[in-house]
Design goal:
- By secondary structure, this protein is of the alpha/beta class.
- It has 4 domains: 133 residues, Resolvase, N-terminal catalytic domain (Rossmann fold, 3-Layer(aba) Sandwich); 104 residues, Hect, E3 ligase catalytic domain fold; 140 residues, no CATH class; 76 residues.
- Helix content is 51%, strand content 16%.
- It has 16 helices and 15 strands.
- The strands form 5 sheets. The protein has a 4-stranded parallel β-sheet, with helices on both faces. It has a 4-stranded mixed β-sheet with strand order 9-13-14-15.
- Strand 14 and strand 15 form a beta hairpin.
- The radius of gyration is 33 Å and the shape is extended.
- The N and C termini lie far apart (84 Å).
Length: 497
């Protein structure tokens, strides 16, 4: 008879209960020999949780059973096989169908209704114990976080973490690099990849002191709010020493958001309007596509999306718009605006938010926030005095008040930003005039990157509507709307071409 032994231990179990692979191996081998096994195969998983089925040793054991290479499997107890009842039952059924018998050292397996019931009950208890341990660990971590402690490993670049005391401190050498990363990205015309390249060119080491900086790592730093002094654990904010100012963090997030939109769909072919074009008919953004049309490959813009899982596949029939004529039209419109800066300024004033209107809405929101807080206080006072019970209806009411408050505060923050933009409109319009005058003298001499940057400084969006003519040239049958980017939070100056 050919037997197999399966042994498993997780790190926490070995520490808590003294389980070891050596102890299980010896006991299982003795049982296999006592059963008259002529050959014994060993399958082991060390440091692997029993809550998952995806284990190298277990996978190999299942494959051997399916192949008919073993007649009996010897395991210390059902917990070694799996910590989950559903998994235990699944494996038991699978082995039985393969004609393999299970033999447990610390559990008597009987293939009877009573034996199966007891097996299921024991598995349920083991699963319950595992969940209780997990629950206690989570509860302990959450309590520690609420007290301002670090409940788990803290390994963010720029900080030093002492696991003995749970204290976080700024690592000055790395903190300087973090500050440079944010300042370079926000204040200079370089992207995430440009920041990574500069770090490598300067020979600045990574935390591991080996390898190069990658754009993914730089992006992780730029998007991590911990550098403003707040580390999030679940829904709990834990204070840590800040490295950068909140204002610098906010500017970095704004530039990242803009970059995701503007530089989407970049490829080895140059597309002047990538990230700016939207199809009004299907709602998709239009990206560059070097495709064959009537036997000729050319640059085009399309709203078709062919990737797996996309929610909107785009227009049918496919909208494939020639890139060059469209880019020429938009470029001519930009030049027209720049050559007449007073026209652009006038339109900007027409579309800009009015300070008086914003202040009115802010007062309206403040009044509603006070009413919400008053209602919340009344409920809490009634609960404290025993006039109300904290039943489902009361909980729902408190939750609804909280949601309304969050929505109003979000709108309030947006209006404050809009107010700042409106109050500084005059200076920003003057900046636009200066930009127009500087560029005007050399519009025709600009290279592709300069044209692209200029278009992004002036154009907020290009909207395409209508059917594309089946002909290869021109924009017949298509309506092109160029929306100019206005100073402040609003956009305007709409020209239909």
């Amino acid at each position: 008879m050919q037997a197999a032994i399966y042994i498993r231990v997780s790190t926490e179990e070995q520490a808590r209960h003294g389980y070891s692979l050596a102890e299980q191996r010896e006991a299982c081998y003795r049982r296999a020999i006592s059963l008259g096994a002529t050959a014994i195969l060993e399958f082991a998983d060390e440091g692997v949780s029993g809550a998952t089925l995806d284990r190298p040793g277990l996978n190999a054991l299942r494959e051997a059973a399916r192949a008919g290479r073993i007649g009996v499997i010897i395991v210390r107890d059902p917990d070694r096989l799996s910590r989950r009842l559903a998994h235990q039952l699944l494996l038991t059924e699978e082995f039985e169908k393969s004609g393999v018998r299970l033999d447990f050292l610390d559990f008597t397996w009987q293939d009877t209704p009573e034996g199966r019931m007891f097996y299921a009950i024991r598995g349920a208890i083991a699963e319950f114990e595992k969940e209780k341990i997990r629950e206690r660990m989570i509860r302990g971590k959450t309590q520690k976080a609420r007290q301002g402690g670090i409940p788990m490993g803290f390994y963010n670049y720029g900080y030093a973490y002492d696991p003995e005391t749970g204290k976080v401190s700024v690592l000055e050498e790395e903190a300087v690099v973090v500050k440079n990363i944010f300042q370079w990205f926000v204040r200079e015309d370089i992207g995430v990849n440009g920041v990574a390249k500069r770090l490598n060119d300067l020979g600045i080491p990574t935390r591991k002191r080996q390898g190069l900086w990658h754009r993914v790592v730089v992006r992780q730093i730029l998007t991590n709010p911990v550098y403003t002094g707040t580390w999030r654990y679940k829904d709990i904010n834990i204070s840590v020493p800040p490295i950068i100012e909140p204002a610098l963090w906010k500017k970095a997030q704004e530039k990242l958001k803009e970059a995701r939109r503007l530089w989407a769909g970049r490829s080895r072919y140059n597309y002047l309007l990538s990230g700016l074009i939207t199809c009004a008919d299907c709602g998709n953004s239009m990206t560059g596509a070097y495709s064959k049309w009537w036997g000729v490959r050319e640059r085009r813009y399309t709203c078709r999306k062919n990737s797996q899982g996309t929610r909107n596949s785009g227009c049918r029939p496919s909208k494939m718009l020639l890139a060059e004529p469209l880019e020429n039209v938009v470029w001519e419109q930009v030049c027209f605006w720049l050559k007449d800066p007073d026209r652009l300024v006038k339109a900007a004033l027409e579309f800009s938010p009015q300070v008086e209107e914003i202040n009115k809405e802010l007062k309206h929101i403040e009044r509603h926030l006070k009413e919400i807080e008053k209602g919340r206080t009344a409920i809490l006072d009634a609960l404290a005095s025993g006039l109300l019970d904290l039943d489902a209806q009361t909980k729902n009411k408190l939750a609804e008040l909280k949601r309304r408050k969050e929505r109003l505060e979000q709108r309030q923050q947006g209006l404050k930003v809009a107010l700042q933009g409106a109050e500084t409109m005059e200076q920003r319009l003057e900046d636009l005039r200066v930009l127009a005058k500087e560029v005007l003298a050399r519009l025709d001499e600009l290279d592709f990157p300069s044209k692209k940057s200029l278009i992004r400084a002036v154009v907020a969006q290009v909207i395409i509507s209508g059917l594309v003519s089946p002909g290869r040239h021109g924009l017949s049958g298509v309506s092109v709307t160029v929306v100019a980017k206005m100073p402040g939070p609003e956009t305007g100056v709409v020209d239909n071409i």
